[in-house]
Design goal:
This protein has 124 residues and is mainly β. The chain is 0% helix and 50% strand. Strands 2, 4, 5, 6, 9, 10 and 11 form a 7-stranded mixed β-sheet that branches.
Length: 124
């Protein structure tokens, strides 16, 4: 069992930056993949970024490429999402997720564990 706890959300102006964190506990992640998803009001949950925990391979949604960076601290069991040049359309609840595959999959159904989410609001 893995527990995921996100933090770092908040209110930010368009063009600003924010860093989200996700601490994983309960077991060593090993050859897992960690990802970030988001869900805006009235919309489906969508993929943002993913990273294989050991190899460090990454995948990004086209909408965030060049603006967001996913990273991890293996010793701290923590996943990060650095969000730069944010836009109002980035407003959503951001979720951290983990799956047992070592491939940074972009499909929410592939993920086994989810955090409770952290709200990000970008003002124009």
């Amino acid at each position: 069992q893995v527990q995921l706890v996100e933090s770092g959300g908040g209110l930010v102006q368009a063009g600003g930056s924010l860093r989200l964190s996700c601490v994983a506990s309960g077991r060593t992640l090993g050859r897992w993949t960690m990802g970030w998803f988001r869900q805006a009001p009235g919309k489906e949950r969508e993929f943002v970024a993913a990273m294989s925990w050991i190899g460090g391979s990454t995948a990004y949604a086209d909408s965030v490429k060049g603006r967001f960076t996913i990273s991890r601290d293996i010793r701290m069991n923590t996943l990060y999402l650095q969000m730069n040049s944010v836009k109002p359309e980035d407003t959503a609840v951001y979720y951290c997720a983990a799956n047992r595959a070592n491939i940074p999959t972009t499909t929410a159904d592939d993920y086994d564990y989810w955090g409770q989410g952290t709200q990000v609001t970008v003002s124009s």
